[in-house]
User: Fold these one by one.
Assistant:
Number 1:
Amino acid sequence: METTLKVKLISHTLNPELVIATAGKLCYSPSNIDDLMEKQTDESIERFVNMITSIGHGSVLEHTSFTFGIEGVSRSLTHQLVRHRIASYSQQSQRYVKETQFEYVMPQDIKNNPILEQSYKKHMEDSQRLYDEIVDKLMYDYVYNEKEYGKLVDIQLKKCKIDKEEFEVWKKENKSCDTFVESLRSTYKRLCSALEKKAIENARYIFPNACETKIICTMNLRSLINFCHHRCCRRAQEEINKLAWTMVEEIEKVSPLLAKSLGASCQFGPCPEGDMCCMMPYEKKNK
Ligand SMILES: Cc1cc2nc3c(=O)[nH]c(=O)nc-3n(C[C@H](O)[C@H](O)[C@H](O)COP(=O)(O)OP(=O)(O)OC[C@H]3O[C@@H](n4cnc5c(N)ncnc54)[C@H](O)[C@@H]3O)c2cc1C
C-alpha cells in the first residue's frame, strides 16, 4: 500500500530563542548568566537571534536542538537524510521488525503515468510475495538443513529450554507440512521468533528502496540550517525536499523567529549550484 509523509516536531530545547540570545550575548558581555537571562526582552532576543544567524556565529546555534518523528518516507530518503552527519538518528529496523505488509513511497512522476504506476505497484506486491516466501523457506532450511544450521538450532533449543529428542519427533511429523511455520509458531513460539529474526534479516535484501520506513531525527539549529540549505533547494530530490519544507513548517509553529533562518541557500545569498542552478530562485528571506 502506498504511504504518505508524516512529520511531527516531537521535542525541542526549552525556550530555544532565549537560550540562543543569552549564549550569544554572553560572548560579548561581562555580566553573569542569571543577569543576562533576566534582562532579555522579546526585542533583545529577536535582535540577538537575527544578528547571530546573519553573521554566521554558528556555534551559538548548537545550544538548541529539535527532534522530529518522521514516518511515511522511503529508505531512499533516509539514506540521503543520514548523510547529514551532525545529527542523531533512530530508525525502525528491518532486521528486527517483520514487514508483514510493507508500505511504499511512489514518486509523483511515476504516479502521473498510469502504465508505470501499475507496473510499480505490481513490483511492490511481487517483492512482498518473494520476501514472505524467502522467510518461510529459510526457516524451513534452518530446521531441516542440519549440516548447515544444526549448531544454530541446537543453541536455540538450549536457549529456549526445548528438549532435543522431543523436537526431533516434532520435526519428523512436520517435515512435509505446508503450514510448517504456523505449526512451529504454535508449538515452539520462542524458537520460531529466533529463527524468524534470522530469516528476515536475510530476506530484507530483496526490498526496494521505495520501502516505507520510520526514523526519529534530532538536529541542532546549526545543522538544521545546513540541512535546509541543501534540501529545501529545488535541486534536492522531491521526497527529501518535501520533508525539509515540512520540517521548516514544524519549526514555524514553535518559533517563527528561528524559522526565518531556515530555507534554501538561494534565500540567503547567491545560488551555490553553479551550472546546475535551477534558475527558479526562491524569494529572499529578510532577517
Ligand atoms: C543536491 C545534492 C546532491 C548530492 N549528490 C550526492 C552524490 O551524488 N553522492 C554523494 O555521495 N553524496 C551526495 N550528496 C550528499 C552530500 O555530499 C552531503 O553528504 C550531504 O548533503 C550532507 O551534507 P553535509 O556534509 O554538509 O552535512 P553534515 O554531515 O551534517 O555536516 C555538516 C557540516 O559539518 C562539516 N563537516 C562534517 N563532517 C566533516 C568532515 N568529516 N570534515 C570536515 N567537515 C565536516 C561540514 O562543514 C559540513 O557541511 C548530495 C547532496 C545534495 C543536496
Number 2:
Amino acid sequence: MDVSPFAALLFVALLSLLLLFFRKGGSPSSGDGRRLPPSPPGLPLLGHLPLIGSLPHRKLQVMAAKHGPVMLLRLGRVPTVVASSAAAAQEVMKTHDLAFASRPRVRMAERLLSDYDMAFAPYGEHWRQSRRVSVLHLLSQRRVRSFRHIRQQEAAAMAGRVRRAGAAVNLNAVLISYTNGVISRAVFGDDGSYELDGGEKLAKLFGDFEELLGKATMGEFVPWLAWVDTLMGLEAKATRTSEEMGALLERIIADHRQRRRGSRREGDNHRDFVDVLLDVNEAEEHAGAGGGVPFDNEAIKAMILVMFAAATDTTYTTMVWAMAELINHPHEMRRVQHEIRAAVGVGGDRVTEEHLEKLRYLKLVIKETLRLHAPLPLLLPHETTEDTQLLGYRVPARTRVIINAWAIARDPATWERADEFVPERFAGDDLTTDYMSAQDFRFVPFGGGRRGCPGVAFAVPSMELALATMLYHFDWELPAGGASKLEMDEMNGLSVRLKATLHLVAKPWSP
Ligand code: HEM
C-alpha cells in the first residue's frame, strides 16, 4: 500500500482539528519568572509540525513576521526555538555560541552515519576530535590547494562533456558529475575502480544516501507515528544503503592500507583524505592513544561519509542557482563573462586557478547567490547544552534551535531590494581572503561559530573554477520557443534546490 507520510499527517491533523480546539499560543513563563519565547497557536499532539509545510524556511519566515525573531514551536513532541534575525543569529553563533553548540538526535543521521560522525554529533569529545582532524588535516588551505589539479582536470572534462552534448545541455547533470568527480577524487582518490557489483554506479549509492539523509522522519517528532516511516520503506532503504556503504568504505580503506604497505607513499600533492586519515591513525598508534578517543577505522569511515554528504549537494546546488540567476539576468551574465574572458586573455584557452583571484565580479555573483539561495536555508539544527537566553528570552537546555538563514538574508529591515539579485551590493566588501567568513550575521549561509561550516575553503575554488569554465567557453540561453524566464521554484531535499532542471542551449565561444 502506498501511503504518503503527508497523507497520514494530514489525516491526524484533521482528526485533531475536529476533536479539539486550537491550543492557545502566547508567551508562556518558564516557571522561574523569565519568559519563554512567544509561541503561535498550534495543534494538540502534532504542535506546529503541520504548519511548516514542505518548504519550512518560507513558512517560518511568515510566522516570524507575525510572532517575532525568536519563536518557540513544538514540532510534535520536540520543543524548537526559531531564530529569524541577524541579532538572534549573532547570539546563537557568537555571544552564547557554546550553549548552542550541540546537535539534536536526527534519526536518519543515526541510521546512516556512526557515533563518530561530526556534522550531527552532539557537542563533546568525539565531535571535538573529528573537527580538529578535519580542520587541521583535511580542509586547510594547503590541503585544498593540493587538489588544484583535480579541480582543473574535472573542469576541463566538464567543458568537453558540454561540447559533446551539442546545443542542448542538461546543466544539472553536468554540474553534479563535476562535483562528484572533484569530491570523490579528493576524498578517496576515486579512479573509477569503485564501481559496484552488478553495474550499479557509485553515484547512485551516494545519491540514495544523500536523499535519505535529507528526509525528516515522522518518528523523530511524533514517536507513535514511527510506523509511517516503516510503511514508506524508509527504514528498509536506510538499512540497505547503510550496509552497502559500509562495505564500500571497508574496501576503500583496505585498498589504501594495502597500497601503503606495498609501494612508496604518494607525494603530499597526490594524497586523498583517506591517506591523510590513515596517517593520523598511525601517528596516534605510535604515540599511544593517550586516553583520548581513538581515531580508528570507524572514525575514518564516518569522516569520509560526512565529508561527501556535506560537500556534494551544497556545492552543486549553489552552482545551479548561480547559473539560473544569471540566465534570468542577462546584464549580469554579460558582465561576468566579460570579466572572465578578459582575465583569461586572448592567448588563453582555458580558465586555471591562477585566474580566480582576478574574478571579483564572479565572487560577487556567488555571494549574492548564496544570500538568496542558501542551500541549507535552516543550516543544520542546533541544540542547547544548558539553560541559556536568546534576545532576553529563556531557552531551556536540550531545546532544538533552528536558525532561518534564508529569512535573515532576505530581511527587508537590513537589506535593500531584499528579494532581488543584485551582486553589486557586495562591491565594497573585502573579498581577497576568505570572503564568506561569518562576521556579518545578516549573511550566514555557512553558519558560524563552533558549528560553522569548516569546508568553505574547499567549496569556494570548486565553485569558482566550474562556473568560470562554463561561462568562459559557452554562451548560455534558454531553448527557443519556451519560456523567456526560468521559474525559480524550490524543491526540498538534503539541500533546497531549483525545482526545474536546467536544460540550456550552450553556444561555444572562442577568443
Ligand atoms: C556551498 C557549499 C557549502 C555550504 C553552503 C555549506 C553550508 C554548511 C552549513 C550551513 C553548515 C551547518 C552550520 C551550522 O549548523 O551552524 C555546514 C556544516 C558542515 N559543513 Fe558545510 N557547506 C558547504 C560546503 C562544504 C564542504 C565542501 C565541506 C567539506 C569538504 C563541508 C563540510 C561541512 C561539515 C563537516 C559540517 C559540520 C560541522 C560541524 O557540525 O561541526 N561543507 N555547512
